């Protein structure tokens, strides 16, 4: 099995699970002094994707809840978000406060972030409204008005997706997120992992002219049988590397519960688990399997580091699963440390030939 390690990054707690039902009080435009200022920053960008941070400052009377709206001008779409519930219909985007950042005093600010996709161009939106009031950087005077009703915004449920029981399509890349019993379900994880493998799917098409298929349920959420510490410490030799214990315990559970072999001619499997021993982060793969611990799961969910690092890491580990070895030097290919430069990294012709001729080359079409 191939192993890659990276220096541990400090996880940043960004948001509570997005699966709550939030009641939002809409302040009527003109019912009180109103005004706002918005800062929209593209924090990272790669081919086909980007990350953005949005900060909104309330310049008017205090608010007990807020909705920020804007429209994209070039077909961009939001794929995941944190610190706000973000929905999109066509070009129109709405971001609703989380429970913990709903109150905005006069001069108070709140920020949230999201990852998105783009094609062709990624211009910054030019107009925003806060609770229906245009954000111009100044305030409007108070005038009597009838408040608008309080709308209710419903977001996905917090309960975990049921453990998958139906058969998965064969000759596909099958992806699992294993959630230990003491880990709270968080929709950012299946959504984020799905975004990472979809980006890897796009990249392989770009590089090889063909790519792998994913199941309709891209990420199968598995409610683990044990708590995090069990996965970290069980089946470990004294003084052994607990990173390998974590991913090996995950793999053995997935193989037993879903009747999967190592390797398996039906599927190329990707497993991510929300558990890892502190300081023992990284990723690994062997022919037919990618095994990733909590550091990578957090990264995919947008909790840990720039997204292009996690995209490059998935491309690297899938390369191993398709049969490629590590490069012997930093050679500009994703099978070396060059994967950190994703998307500015490319397979060599020899690597492309090896993937297509390998055990799982027939999965690509």
TrEMBL record:
- Tell me the keywords, alphabetical order: Signal
Q: Which Pfam families match?
A: CBM_2 (PF00553)
Cite the GO molecular-function annotations of the record.
hydrolase activity, hydrolyzing O-glycosyl compounds; polysaccharide binding
The protein's matches in InterPro entries, at most eight in alphabetical order, are given as: CBD2 (IPR001919), CBM2/CBM3_carb-bd_dom_sf (IPR008965), CBM2_carb-bd_dom_sf (IPR012291)
Q: Which range is the signal sequence, renumbered to this chain?
A: 1-22
> PROSITE patterns from the xrefs?
CBM2
Q: Which GO terms describe its biological process?
A: carbohydrate metabolic process
The CBM2 domain sits at 29-138
The record's region (Disordered) falls at 138-167
Q: What is this protein called?
A: CBM2 domain-containing protein
């Amino acid at each position: 099995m191939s192993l890659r390690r990276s220096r541990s990054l400090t996880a940043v707690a960004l948001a509570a699970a997005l699966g709550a039902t939030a009641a939002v009080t809409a302040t009527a435009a003109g019912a009180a002094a109103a005004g706002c200022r918005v800062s929209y920053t593209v924090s990272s960008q790669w081919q086909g994707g980007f990350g953005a941070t949005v900060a909104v400052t309330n310049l008017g009377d205090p608010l007990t809840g807020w909705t920020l709206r804007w429209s994209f001008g070039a077909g961009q779409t939001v794929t995941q978000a944190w610190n706000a519930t973000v929905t999109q219909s066509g070009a129109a985007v709405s971001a609703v406060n989380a429970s913990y950042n709903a109150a905005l005093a006069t001069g108070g600010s709140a920020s949230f972030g999201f990852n998105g996709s783009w094609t062709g161009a990624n211009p910054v939106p030019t107009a925003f409204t806060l609770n229906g009031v245009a954000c111009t950087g100044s305030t409007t005077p108070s005038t009597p008005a009838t408040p608008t009703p309080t709308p209710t915004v419903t977001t996905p449920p917090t309960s975990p997706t049921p453990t998958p029981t139906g058969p998965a399509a064969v000759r596909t890349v099958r992806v699992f997120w294993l959630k230990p019993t003491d880990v709270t379900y968080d929709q950012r994880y299946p959504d984020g992992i799905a975004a990472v493998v979809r980006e890897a799917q796009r990249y392989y098409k770009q590089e090889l002219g063909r790519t792998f298929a994913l199941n309709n349920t891209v990420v199968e959420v598995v409610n683990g049988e044990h708590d995090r510490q069990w996965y970290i410490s069980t089946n470990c030799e004294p003084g052994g590397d607990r990173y390998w214990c974590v991913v090996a315990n995950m793999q053995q559970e997935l193989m037993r519960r879903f009747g999967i072999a190592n390797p398996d001619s039906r599927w190329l499997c990707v497993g991510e688990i929300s558990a890892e021993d502190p300081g023992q982060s990284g990723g690994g793969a062997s022919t037919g399997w990618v095994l990733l611990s909590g550091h990578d799961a957090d990264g995919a969910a947008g909790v840990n580091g720039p997204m292009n690092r996690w995209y490059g890491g998935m491309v690297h580990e899938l390369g191993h699963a398709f049969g490629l070895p590590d490069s012997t030097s930093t050679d500009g290919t994703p099978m070396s440390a060059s994967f950190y430069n994703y998307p500015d990294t490319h397979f060599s012709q020899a690597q492309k030939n090896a993937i297509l001729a390998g055990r799982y080359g027939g999965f690509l079409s």
